[in-house]
Amino acid sequence: xxxxxxxxxxxxxxxxxxxxxxxxxxxxxxxxxxxxxxxxxxxxxxxxxxxxxxxxxxxxxxxxxxxxxxxxxxxxxxxxxxxxxxxxxxxxxxxxxxxxxxxxxxxxxxxxxxxxxxxxxxxxxxxxxxxxxxxxxxxxxxxxxxxxxxxxxxxxxxxxxxxxxxxxxxxxxxxxxxxxxxxxxxxxxxxxxxxxxxxxxxxxxxxxxxxxxxxxxxxxxxxxxxxx
Length: 228
Description:
This protein is mainly β. The chain has two helices and eleven strands; from the N terminus they run βββαββββββββα.
């Protein structure tokens, strides 16, 4: 159920620079609603609309709002990260994770979250569930798969994006750079550098593909699962 303030709407088809602070809630296994993610006003989630940087359903709720507008809305499982799918739990050969001829046990262990990339260059995370004698069991489901998402927040900035910002965002998405070109700071960390950081990677039509011809790398680029 939406609770959006009355506002002059912008064309949803234009590329806009949007920064939002928000709290994200989900219901835990006991049915208690708890906060699982927060973007404070000092470090808001920032993106350029119309480029696929944010969940489509999330973007549709905030892209037309003005600076200062408050929002509160719910995204269904289908509109968010989809249902939890057992087929997205896969086994990758341990040889995929070899460094200098030895298995990388310092990085690959139960509970580790690995940045991965498939052969099409699509980046996503995988959670290590188990390390067996010959294979590593990875969960490629989004951490919020199967969850209804409850958002509450505020638009901190909203304006037309500059050509520099749009090009910077496209470069980042193609792996050519890490800057979105926006006139702000954005942090690097577990969430990645997607212009302010938060969620919003999907498997779905893009494929979740570990298995097949992928690359496994270490360092800043993370790793890619599957073998050759």
